[in-house]
Design goal:
This protein is an alpha/beta fold and 326 residues long. It contains 6 helices and 19 strands. Bound molecules: flavin-adenine dinucleotide. Residues 19-25, 42-44, 47-50, 52-54, 56-57, 60, 62-63, 94-95, 122-125, 127, 147-148, 151, 258, 261, 292-294, 300-303, 305 line the site of flavin-adenine dinucleotide.
């Protein structure tokens, strides 16, 4: 059999394939490679930035080991290098289809197909953003516009400023409450006249004197020269537009887990996240493990993704050993 352009043999069989390229996938690769599982990792191409969500951010200040902070792309480059150092094979391809009904599993990439005894899915999620003037890439995105209050809220640019949070679910209320630690005032803006958030969360927001709720309004523009300076909101009932001074804009309108390519192969939660057995990375299919944001709609942090990537590699190693495939 001849190797393909990627150096792989057609339908080569691997002990372990990992799909994804964020902190979960690279941590799983580091652990699996050091356990001599010779992992093959699909890092993606069109499916999201190779390197994951942190490629879209500047400073990461809460990842342990970097007391002076590190940029997202630099951190991911280090993780990728560490995975390569222990002989992880990395393919810059998207996985477009999988067959998990028969063992070994079949993983179909955009150029390569392989078989795998075990599989770790770490394809992450994409934070939804409002597509309005001023908030886009190369405008004020990451210059006061963020999709993660826990990640960015403590940054000096947001201190003692008026911050605007957009959304109506539990995460939006939670992010607004979180930001009150730093902000002068937090405006929680929702396009309807009631929240989807649970009553207990809404009560917390209403009791917090630093939060003001603005009902029935949508964001139509973010203004500012180098950083966010103001927002223009529109009343959905009257159409009236108002300008407000603002030091930051936070989108809390949900995430989309990257699970479309799994199409009925593994059980998903109603919100599209991979279902796992609590406290493990085990999915509904034996030998298939899930790590990182693709199975976590609660914590969604680089360090928790990395932690679960480690768990997935250990779970996969144990499963392969039990089956005498390691
Ligand atoms: C703007 C922003 C700032 C953030 N800042 C921080 C921060 O400061 N600190 C912090 O702890 N967390 C931060 N986070 C959250 C953090 O980035 C995520 O929790 C973390 O990246 C999740 O890692 P992951 O490994 O699960 O997947 P992701 O980082 O989501 O990466 C998954 C990657 O897998 C690849 N992929 C997807 N589908 C396929 C496919 N079919 N085939 C092949 N590859 C595929 C894509 O390249 C995708 O990008 C931030 C998030 C955002 C959006």
């Amino acid at each position: 059999m001849l190797p393909s352009l990627t150096g792989l043999f057609s339908m080569e069989r691997r002990k372990l394939v990992i799909i994804g390229s964020g902190p979960a996938a690279f941590t799983a690769a580091i652990y699996a490679a050091r356990a001599n599982l010779y992992p093959l990792l699909y890092e993606g191409f069109f499916s999201g930035p190779a390197g994951g969500q942190l490629m879209t951010t500047t400073e990461v200040e809460n990842y342990p080991g970097f007391p002076d902070g590190i940029t997202g792309p630099e951190l991911m480059e280090k993780m990728r290098k560490q995975a390569e150092r222990f002989n992880t094979t990395i393919l810059t391809e998207d996985v477009i289809d999988v067959d998990l009904k028969a063992s070994p599993f079949t993983i179909k990439g955009s150029a390569t197909s392989v078989q795998a005894d075990a599989l770790i899915i770490a394809t992450g999620a994409i934070a939804r953003r409002l597509d309005v003037p001023g908030a886009r890439d190369n405008e004020l995105w990451q210059k006061g516009v963020s999709a993660c209050a826990v990640c960015d809220g403590a940054a000096p640019i947001f201190r003692s400023k008026d911050l605007f949070v957009f959304g109506g679910g539990d995460s939006a209320v939670e992010e607004a409450v979180f930001l009150t630690k730093y902000a002068r005032k937090v405006y929680l803006v929702h396009r309807r006249d009631h929240f989807r958030a649970s009553k207990i969360m809404v009560d917390r927001a209403e009791r917090n004197h630093k939060i003001e709720i603005i009902w029935n309004h949508v964001l139509i523009k973010v203004e500012g020269d180098h950083v966010v300076a103001g927002v223009i909101l529109k009343d959905v009932n009257t159409g009236k537009e108002t300008r407000h001074e603002a030091g930051g804009v936070f989108f809390a309108i949900g995430h989309d887990p990257n699970t479309a390519f799994l199409k009925g192969q593994v059980a998903l939660e109603p919100n599209g996240y991979i279902k796992i057995q609590p406290g493990t990375t085990l999915t509904s299919v034996e030998g298939v493990f899930a790590a990182g944001d693709v199975q976590d709609h609660l914590y969604r942090q680089a360090v928790t993704a990395a932690g679960s990537g480690c768990m997935a590699a250990l779970d996969a190693e144990e499963w392969l050993s039990e089956k005498e495939l390691a």
